[in-house]
Design goal:
The protein is mainly beta and 123 residues long. It is built from no helices and 11 strands.
Length: 123
């Protein structure tokens, strides 16, 4: 079965860092753009960041620019989201998703989704 699995979430203090991983099983990520999304309680799912299949193009939500960095290691079939200077407003379930498109905004353009990993930023 084609799956994406997120890991690396947890509880961290404000100002701390976490690195999320998105690993594929059953398929290679080489041909997919990978997006990170998050959903906080009572809020809509929002795009956080995306990286093109080649890694040559990235984008970030304004709320995370300068703090988060997306990267990929196709040899490891894994995409990462390095999150620094975390704020309580970053608390959410984080999902990765794969698309054959060029980092589309619409969530229904993503073919595969992970189960999500909880990130909680609190003192």
């Amino acid at each position: 079965q084609l799956q994406l699995v997120e890991s690396g979430g947890g509880l961290v203090q404000p100002g701390g860092s976490l690195r999320l991983s998105c690993a594929a099983s059953g398929f290679t990520l080489d041909y997919y753009a990978i997006g990170w999304f998050r959903q906080a309680p009572g809020k809509e799912r929002e795009g956080v960041s995306c990286i093109s299949s080649s890694g040559g193009s990235t984008n970030y939500a304004d709320s995370v620019k300068g703090r988060f960095t997306i990267s990929r290691d196709n040899a490891k079939n894994t995409v990462y989201l390095q999150m620094n200077s975390l704020k309580p407003e970053d608390t959410a379930v984080y999902y990765c998703a794969a698309s054959t498109g060029l980092c589309p905004v619409a969530t229904d353009e993503y073919d595969y989704w992970g189960q999500g990993t909880q990130v909680t930023v609190s003192s």
